Amino acid sequence: MDKPFLYSFLSQHRYGVVSSIAADGTPQSALVGIAPTPELEIVFDTVKSSRKYPNLIARPACSFVIGWAGEQTVQLEGTAVEPQGADLERYQKMYFAVWTDGPARMAWPGIAYFVVRPRWIRYSDFDQRPPLIEELRFD
């Protein structure tokens, strides 16, 4: 398992579940539309009135589960960043390439974008016998 394989897998999925931690320490999860980058970052949009937005601003450690058709999944732990300036424009282009309706959402009040940079990824394929389970760690 390498980055190109994982990027291909992630690119086949339009949605993921992101989990964040609330101020009181409780976990909160939400389904979001995703766009992966070749560096295995996950880009998504949200609104500032959502629960995940203040969670990720205050506590950027988060996790994702992507892929649940069949028994192949990616679990990803990383750090969420709200990009600004030229970085924001670059990530928006990647996001809009997947979500062509994304530019229309830019008119929404409080629209925001996050990039989750991976620290750990586990790919699991339980459709194989024996199952394939591999991990990658990032500095």
Keywords:
single chain, 139 residues, alpha+beta, eight-stranded antiparallel sheet, 4 helices
What does this structure look like?
With 139 residues, this protein is α+β, with helices and mostly antiparallel strands. The protein has a single domain, classed as Roll (Pnp Oxidase, Chain A). The protein has helices at residues 3-11, 52-58, 85-98, 102-105; strands spanning 15-21, 27-33, 35-36, 42-47, 61-66, 72-81, 111-125, 132-137. Strands 1, 2, 3, 4, 5, 6, 7 and 8 form an 8-stranded antiparallel β-sheet that branches. The longest helix is centred in the middle third of the chain and has 14 residues, at 85-98.
Write down the CATH topology.
Answer: Pnp Oxidase, Chain A
Strand runs, count: 8
Inertia-based shape: globular
Which whole number gives the mean pLDDT?
95
Can you summarize this structure?
By secondary structure, the chain is an alpha+beta fold.
What does the secondary structure layout of this molecule look like, with pairings?
Layout: H1 3-11, E1 15-21, E2 27-33, E3 35-36, E4 42-47, H2 52-58, E5 61-66, E6 72-81, H3 85-98, H4 102-105, E7 111-125, E8 132-137
Antiparallel strand pairs: 1-2, 1-5, 3-4, 4-7, 5-6, 6-7, 7-8
